[in-house]
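>> received
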Amino acid sequence: MNFIEIPAGAEQVLNVLHHAGFEAYVVGGCVRDSVLGRIPGDWDITTSASPQEVKSLFGRTVDTGIAHGTVTVMIGKEGYEVTTYRIDGAYEDFRHPQEVTFTTSLTEDLKRRDFTVNAMAYSHETGIVDEFGGLRDLKDKVIRCVGEPKERFGEDALRMMRAVRFAAQLGFRIDERVKDAIREMADALDHISAERIQTELVKLLVSPHPSWFRLAYETGITSVIMPEFDRIMVQRQHNPHHAYTAGEHTLLAMKHIQADKVLRLTMLFHDMGKPDTFTTDENGKDHFHGHAAVSAQIAFRILKRLKFDNDTTQKVCTLVRHHSMYPQLSAREVRRGAYLLGPELYDSFLQVKRADIMAQHPDVIPDKLAYLDQVEQIWEDIKLHQDCLSLKQMNLSGKDLIGDGMKPGPELGEVLEKLLMEVLDQPEKNTRGYLLEESRRLRAKEKAGG
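>> returned
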């Protein structure tokens, strides 16, 4: 590919810099993605102009990272990061150079980048500048470092996770020298912040190849960032329901669920409690009683350690805790299950259930899927009829009970809970008249000591 279509805003930035006598190129991921026929997420620009010269040429700029040469140029509502060619000084914290030196050499700037496929630049005047074999590596579908892998990972240890993430996103293999360097240096990830590891983990999991998380295990990355995963990779499952280790089952399950952060994290964690609940009976059959609850505890611990937000943590842990639930084939039981999980999570629960089944022993999959199809049909009918599934959907509130003479307190909550259980069993009882009468009966029964 000799021509890359650049969006108008980025084109405008390049033109202004060129007309002022400076070199300027789009660089990095946008070039890689354009060559691959993918739609770039960002259009970054590199230039021989200094940050101050860039600021002088444009009306609206933001000093995004001016100490490291980056200025964001605003074109309309879009921002474009413009970074001066630079040479990085020594690294001491596996992330930041102690100092940067601006240069007028594009080659020197490209030399400091992580992987060859990310070290290409482009302008209409010059075409693709590929000093390190990025085009060849795109054709060969391989992730290879610019220069010596150990040097690149010594500069920023997170690049080891990025290698696995790019492989999963692009469907590429990782060069053996890169793998060897990761195995040798994985411990350096201890120096990387939880937030940065979280970001790379999520990008890897929601990629087209989440099961390539196995590469993180094989190269020793998970032993540093998530040793809990290493335990399930060697956890046997001698059981009619399973054909793989708990870890291989997990990797396969992630392939069978949509690329959503909460859902992929749920599948990653759903069986983490199996090593802690492992038993074998007298017939040599393995069991994992209570593993879902233990898995939820482990998930909570990992999500907090990696600084995930409370909403994600709550949803993932709830789904993990209840993923082993097999509701009976009745509307009553499905409604109760939806109440237990929270109605807003029941669709996700069914997706988790399907992915879990798809990664089990081939002999049990057809019958389990047939069962799940029936559960899903019952759930669709429940949604169609808009059955009450929570206190806020019930046609009687705590305010109504207070208005009927009840005092606020634990007893009020207990009455509402009992009424909801009735409504879950028999949705036709969700009328204000019936619920008010039933609440009075429950209160009278309580006062009578019955």
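>> Residues 365-385 form the longest helix (21 residues).
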